């Protein structure tokens, strides 16, 4: 076990040695005790520096902070990729998304990217006896590959074909059509006499667009996002029909939070897994009037307050249902932060000294660490001693780690890149992974303190979003312990290290897997 040969440095600052060595039984299910519920709160585009427990001073996130203070707060935990679709693909399948074509940012009408029947995190937990639900942003495609997608009938395959018992979805993103919810394969509130049509090529129907009718907008695009107008906001893509089913952005957080609460209430007497994927703080940022104008940082800050409220509401529900003690709660984000991601929402003008990336370089889309290093915390009262951990962690490992917890065997061809880091997750191992591949445009390899970014000819900066992408035609090598902000490229000084890491990355890529064959 990793635990036995870990370096007992001062990584886990306030965890006592006693807590790190006290064993509690794995596979509780096998021993006849009720398995703990698992709630995974997955924020969108929330950066390492966006919450006060990670150092933000211009905004307060009391509920997220409380969760962190009651559990382990990780300082070196990563989303698998620097954008949404590949991160979620990897989270659910335990396979690095870059191994498969078609796992980039999905269109609003993309067909399902994860093939039906495939072994996934929810399918594995379902086998272990869990009732599984997904509420919120999906962005992994719906409907059969190669077939027409009809939004007016049964939309299949969907989440239930990869292990979810219940689903309530924002099909893609808040800024992509169709702007409707899909609950258990059907658009919610659809009037059959007003069918939905969606297009990501030619305009469809005769509805106003952001491009032609800017006078109708309550929020204007800064780049892209100038197609069909829904709720006064122009989106990516065209849609017509489905008027009665269209969401109201201001109510979105309440809507999905209520669905998540309902799922927990309904399943309170049996083990459940809830994957709660928020729309916040992705664009368009249109929070409810309870939060609008409250942060002083514009809608982006207000969306952070709203997100924090959602976290509080879910935690409160667990208390009320008497489930808090027997529930593992995690909170993290799908990729790093972006300030202007396509709408003129004052996010840049009102930053007010707030630093969404914290001490890290880059942001969403970037190979620099802010692309993937995100807030990550886990609470399990009585089982996990509160503290802080520097272990190298990745969301891709939840599959193998929870398989270990629930006594599920995973075969060699399942979840090929998911490592069992359960001991690190619960604060008993201060090291976590021995390596990690980060994914933006180029791949990066992290080994110990070192990070190697492979050469890439892409642009250095994405001018629209004003983020350094970490692309460089030359190799980059950083010592993250000494240079967390990746300012000092040591590649020329350390050619041997570069060679070793480039070869290691090549092998991990060519092998098609990173979990050793057993
Ligand atoms: C980009 C969008 C951006 C956002 C992103 C996906 C434009 C110009 N930009 O293409 O606004 O939607 O895709 O974000 O259209 S993610 O968090 O879901 O990956
Ligand atoms: Ca995202």
Protein architecture, described:
With 518 residues, this protein is of the alpha/beta class. It has helices at 17-21, 62-69, 84-93, 121-127, 252-266, 298-320, 398-405, 422-425, 495-510, and strands at residues 37-43, 72-74, 77-78, 131-137, 166-170, 182-183, 186-187, 197-199, 229-230, 233-234, 238-240, 272-277, 327-333, 376-379, 387-389, 393-394, 435-439, 443-447, 450-453, 461-462, 467-468, 476-479. A 10-stranded mixed β-sheet has the order 7-6-5-4-12-1-13-14-2-15, with helices on both faces. The chain has a 4-stranded antiparallel β-sheet with strand order 17-18-19-22, with helices on one face. α2 crosses α6 and α5 runs parallel beside α6. It is globular. The chain starts with 16 loop residues before the first helix and ends in an 8-residue tail after the last helix. The model is unreliable at 1-27 (pLDDT under 50). The structure holds 2-acetamido-2-deoxy-6-O-sulfo-beta-D-galactopyranose and calcium ion. Calcium ion is lined by residues 44-45, 84, 282, 334-335.
């Amino acid at each position: 076990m990793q635990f036995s040969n870990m370096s007992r440095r001062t990584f886990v600052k306030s965890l006592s040695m006693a807590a790190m060595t006290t064993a509690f039984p794995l596979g509780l299910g096998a021993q006849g005790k009720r398995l703990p519920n698992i709630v995974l709160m997955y924020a969108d585009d929330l950066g390492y520096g966006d919450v006060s427990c990670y150092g933000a001073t211009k905004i307060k996130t009391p509920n997220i902070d409380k969760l962190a203070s009651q559990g382990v707060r990780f300082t070196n935990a990563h989303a698998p990729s620097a954008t949404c679709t590949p991160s979620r693909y990897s989270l659910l399948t335990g396979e690095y998304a870059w191994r498969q074509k078609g796992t980039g940012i999905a269109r609003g009408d993309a067909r399902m990217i994860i093939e039906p029947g495939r072994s996934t995190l929810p399918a594995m937990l379902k086998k272990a006896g869990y009732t599984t639900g997904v509420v919120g942003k999906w962005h992994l495609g719906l409907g059969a590959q190669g077939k027409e997608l009809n939004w007016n009938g049964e939309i299949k395959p969907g989440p239930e074909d990869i292990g979810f018992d219940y689903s309530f979805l924002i099909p893609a993103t808040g800024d992509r059509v169709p702007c409707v919810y899909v609950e258990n394969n059907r658009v919610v509130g659809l009037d059959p006499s007003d069918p939905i049509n969606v297009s990501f090529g030619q305009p469809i129907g005769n509805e106003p667009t952001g491009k032609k009718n800017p006078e109708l907008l309550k929020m204007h695009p800064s780049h892209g996002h100038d197609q069909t107008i829904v709720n006064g906001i122009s989106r990516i893509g065209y849609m017509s029909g489905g008027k009665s089913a269209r969401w109201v952005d201001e109510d979105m957080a309440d809507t999905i939070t209520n669905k998540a609460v309902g799922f927990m209430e309904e399943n309170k007497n049996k083990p459940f897994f809830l994957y709660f994927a928020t729309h916040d703080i992705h664009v368009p940022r249109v929070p409810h009037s309870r939060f609008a104008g409250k942060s002083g940082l514009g809608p982006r800050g207000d969306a952070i307050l709203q997100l924090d409220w959602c976290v509080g509401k879910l935690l409160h529900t667990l208390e009320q249902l008497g489930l808090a003690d027997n529930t593992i709660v995690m909170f993290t984000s799908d990729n790093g932060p972006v300030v202007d991601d396509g709408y003129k929402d004052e996010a840049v003008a009102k930053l007010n000294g707030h630093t969404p990336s914290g001490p890290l370089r880059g942001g969403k889309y970037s190979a620099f660490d802010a692309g993937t290093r995100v807030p990550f915390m886990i609470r399990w009262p009585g089982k996990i001693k509160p503290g802080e951990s520097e272990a190298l962690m990745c969301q891709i490992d939840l599959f193998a780690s929870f398989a270990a917890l629930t006594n599920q065997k995973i075969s060699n061809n399942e979840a090929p890149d998911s490592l069992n880091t359960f001991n690190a997750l619960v604060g008993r191992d201060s090291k976590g992974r021995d390596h990690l591949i980060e994914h933006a445009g180029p791949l990066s390899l992290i080994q110990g303190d070192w990070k190697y970014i492979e050469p890439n000819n892409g642009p250095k900066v994405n001018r629209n979003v004003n983020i350094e992408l970490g692309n460089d035609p030359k190799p980059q090598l950083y010592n993250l312990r000494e240079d967390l902000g990746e300012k000092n490229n040591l590649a020329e000084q350390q050619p041997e290290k570069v060679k070793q890491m480039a070869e290691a990355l090549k092998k991990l890529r060519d092998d098609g897997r990173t979990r050793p064959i057993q």
